[in-house]
Amino acid sequence: MLKILKYSFYDLIRSRWSYVYFLFYLLLGFVLLFLNNDVSKAIITLMNVIIILVPLISTIFGIMYFYNSKEFTELLLAQPIKRSSIFLGQYLGVAGSLTLSLVLGLGIPFVLYGLFKSDAIFDFSLLLVTGAFLTLIFTVLAFNIALSNENKIKGFGYAVLLWLFMAVIYDGLFLMSLIIFKEYPLDAFSLSATMFNPIDLSRTLILLKLDISALLGYTGAVFKKFFGTDQGLFVSMLMLILWTVLPIWRLVYVSKKKDF
Amino acid sequence: MMRYQSLLNFTFLLFVTAHLWAKPIVICESCEIKSISEGIDRAIDFDTLIVKKGTYKEFNILVDKPLTLIGEGYPIIDGEKKGEIMRIVSDGVTIDGFFIINVGTSYTTDYAAIRVVKSENFLIQNVVLEKLFFGIYLEKSNYGKVYHNKIIGDAKDEYNSGNGIQLWYSHHVEVSNNIVQGARDGIYLEFSDNITIDNNKSTNNLRYGLHFMFSDDDVYTNNLFENNGAGVAVMFSKGIIMKGNTFRKNWGTASFGVLLKEINDAEISNNTFEENTIGINIEGSNRINYKGNNFINNGWGIKVLGACYANAFTGNNFLYNSFDISYDSKLNDNVFDGNYWSGYTGYDLDKNGIGDVPYRPVKLFSYIVNKTPEAIVLLRSLFMDIIDFSEKVSPVFTPDNLLDINPLMTKVQ
C-alpha cells in the first residue's frame, strides 16, 4: 500500500494541478495578509474561502484522478496486490498531496507575517485542521462516487451535486425547517443538524472560536456552551473522523466485492 | 443704583473672603481638632476646613452648614464598611481633594460615599473613591457640579453593588471629567432634567456605562463608554442631545452600544460606535436625528425593533458591520439619506460623489434572523450569501422603500 501511496503522491506532486492549487493558496494567503495585515481578521476571511473551496476542489480533483488513473488501476488489479491497498494507497496519495498544498500554501504566508507571535495561532491551526478534514472527507466521498459509477459524466454529475448539497442545499433545508418549526425549541435540533454536515460543522467550529460568536445571541450561547468545552470539541472532532472513516470503510468494502 | 449695588456686592464679597481666610479650621491627626465631624461641629457658616494628610476613620459625617472642605495631600476617609460616609444637607458645600474608601454595603439602604440631599450649589471635585457601594449620590439636589473625580469600584454581582454617580430628582447639574469604572452602572440618572454630562470616561462597569430614565433635555458630550456589561441604556426621555461620544467594545450576547427605548425628539450626532454587538438598539423611539455618526465593525450597526417613526439617518458612516441595519417589520417610516456604506457596490458615472444606484441596507438574512433567531447559526454560509444577493436584486421580504437613494461614494469626514 505504501508503494502505491508513494507512487500516487509523487505523481500528483509532480503534476501541474498540485502546483496550481498550492500557488493559489499561497497567493490567497499573501494577498489577504497584505490587504489587512491583521492575522486574526485574515483568518475570518480565509474561513469563507476554505469551507467553500476546499470541498469543491477535493471533490472535483478526487473524481478526476480516479477516472484518469482507471487504466493504471486495472493494471494494478491484475497484480497480486491486495485491493484495499490499491484503493487506499491512491486515496491517501490524492488526499495527502491536496492537504499538503493547503497546509503549506496557507502556512507559509501566515508564518512569514508573524503567526507565531500572534495569539491567533490556535484559531489558525483549527482552520488548517478543519481544512485538512474537509479535504479527506470530500476526496473519499468523490472516490466512492467514482467507484459506484462507471459512467464518467454521471459520476461528475453526482460529485458536483454532492458538493452543492452539502454547501448550499443542506443549509436551505435547514433554514426551511427552522422557519417552519419556529414555535418549538430548536436549539438541540440546530445543534444536531450542524453536526451532520461537515461543512456546517467546520464553519460553526471556527466561528465560535473567533470572537464573532457574540453575534450569535441566545442560540450562540447554547452553541458556545457545547462547542466551547473540551467535550464539544472532542465530539465535533469525532464527527469529522466518522465522516472520514465511514466512507473509507465503504470504499474498501465495495472495492473488494466489485467486479472490474 | 447699579453702581451702588456692585459696590455693595464687592464689600460683601470682601467681607466673606476676609472671613473665610481669617479662620480656616485645620484638621489633622496631631491638631486640636482630630476628626472631620468635630471640625464641622465647631465651624460656622461659610468656614473653610482644611484636612491635612492622614487617615480618618469616620462615617456618617453630616455636613449641615455651607462649608468648604479641602483635603490637602489626599487625606483618606475610611468608612470601615460601617455605612454612609458623608451626607451633605446644606446649600453651598464644596468637597475637594479626598480619598474615600470602604463604604458599607447594605441590601436595604443605598449607602454612598458622598450623598447630597435636597441641597443646591454644591461642588464635588478631585475626589477619589474606592471600595464603594454607591459613589456620589445626588438626591433632589440642583445646580451643582461633580467635576474631575475618580471612582474605582470592584463590583462582582449586580445585587450587592451600587452605581458610580447617581442622580435622582436632581436638575441642572454638571457632571464632567470624571472617571468611573467597576461600578454597577457608571452614571445613573432618574427623573433628572437639564443635566450636562461631559467628557467622562465610564468603563468596565458591571451593567451599564450610562443609564438614564425619565430624564429630559439632558446633554451628553464627548464621553467614552467602553467595555461595559451591557453598554448604555437610555429610556423614556425626550429632548436628549448626544454628541461626540464614543461607545466601544460592548461585546457579548446581550450587549449593545446604546439601547434607546421610548426616546423622542433627540439628536444623536458625531458619535462613534465601534466593535459593539449592536451599535444602536432602537425601540419605540421617534423623531430622532442621527447625523454624522460612525458605525464601525459592529455586529449590527442599527437594530430597529417595534414602532420607530420619523427618524432621519443622514451623513453617517457604516463601516464593515456584519449587518448595517436590521428591521423587524415590513413598514418603514424612517429616512436614510446620504450615508456612506462600506457594503455599497454601485457606481458613480457622473462623478458627483453620490452613487447612481440606491443602496438597500437591510439584508434578507437579518430579516430572517429577526423572525427565527436560531437561523443565526447559518451566518457566513454560502447559502445565505446567495439568497442575500437575490434579495438585493429584487426585494421581496425587506421593506422596499427602505433604501438610501443618495449613498455616498466616499466616507464622511
UniProtKB/TrEMBL annotation, chain A:
<protein>
    <submittedName>
        <fullName>ABC transporter permease</fullName>
    </submittedName>
</protein>
<feature type="transmembrane region" description="Helical">
    <location>
        <begin position="233"/>
        <end position="252"/>
    </location>
</feature>
<keyword id="KW-0812">Transmembrane</keyword>
<feature type="transmembrane region" description="Helical">
    <location>
        <begin position="159"/>
        <end position="181"/>
    </location>
</feature>
<feature type="transmembrane region" description="Helical">
    <location>
        <begin position="20"/>
        <end position="36"/>
    </location>
</feature>
<feature type="transmembrane region" description="Helical">
    <location>
        <begin position="124"/>
        <end position="147"/>
    </location>
</feature>
<feature type="transmembrane region" description="Helical">
    <location>
        <begin position="88"/>
        <end position="112"/>
    </location>
</feature>
<keyword id="KW-0472">Membrane</keyword>
<keyword id="KW-1133">Transmembrane helix</keyword>
<feature type="transmembrane region" description="Helical">
    <location>
        <begin position="42"/>
        <end position="67"/>
    </location>
</feature>
